[in-house]
Amino acid sequence: MRARRRKTTRMSILAGLSALLLATVSGPVADAAPSQASRPHRECSTPSINRFQQWLASGEGTTVPPTGSLLVKEGAGYAAKVVFQNNEWHVAVVWLGNKFDAQADLSRSAGFWLAYRADEDLYVQLRPASHWSGGDKWLTKIPATGGQLVRRYFSFDPGNWTWLPELGQPSYSFRSALAEARGLVFVGKTPNALDFRELRVDGYQPPCL
Question: Does residue 44 belong to any structural domain of this protein?
């Protein structure tokens, strides 16, 4: 009887090890986006979303608010909300270092997570410190969400970034822009209601100011 119990125990252990090995070898392939689900962060003492304190209406295009901070209280935290009006180019800015003259080296970053609502498609530009002004920037599309709050990952793979003939072709490479990133700039040409709840950049945490 004792020998039978030892045999049964050994078989259970072997079965468990086999299952663990199988899960390790043949489990689901990890998403290309780095996991952010359990990464803790401490918000700043002033309004912020994932420590990004400067969400701004630039005054370019007719927006509500027309200028200044987009941050509003939302539950226990904050949201960044802006409405683009009219059929014209509008601009809303996030300063990556929480001040205009700061910049971040994102050359080793894989991309960023964004939780947001948008009635219409828009774009986000990655603007470098050395080429801040003007519309001739590398950009990627931010799809409309049909009024639903969604969470999407946007890769920094250069193949996912392009430019618009209407705004002009950048005179610098996307890789160089990553190395001296000053801001993420949301631009759109159509009326749009935008609501941002999360922005997490892989491998980068902004300083609170």
Answer: no
Task: Check which CATH number belongs to the domain holding 139 and give it.
Answer: 2.60.120.260
Tokens matching residue 38: 């359990």
User: Residue 11: enclosing H or E segment and its boundaries?
Assistant: helix 2-26
Say how many domains are in the chain.
1
CA 129 to CA 97: how far, in whole Å? 11
Model confidence pTM above 0.70: yes
Q: What is the pLDDT of residues 122-176, one digit of tens each?
A: 999 999 999 999 999 999 999 999 989 999 999 999 999 999 999 999 999 999 9
**What is the span of the domain harbouring residue 61?**
55-201
Q: Is 118 helix (H, G, I), strand (E, B) or coil?
A: strand
| Strand stretches in the chain, DSSP E | 55-57, 62-64, 68-69, 71-74, 77-85, 90-95, 111-118, 122-128, 139-142, 150-155, 181-188, 192-201
Percent helix, percent strand, percent coil in the chain, to nearest 5: 20, 35, 45
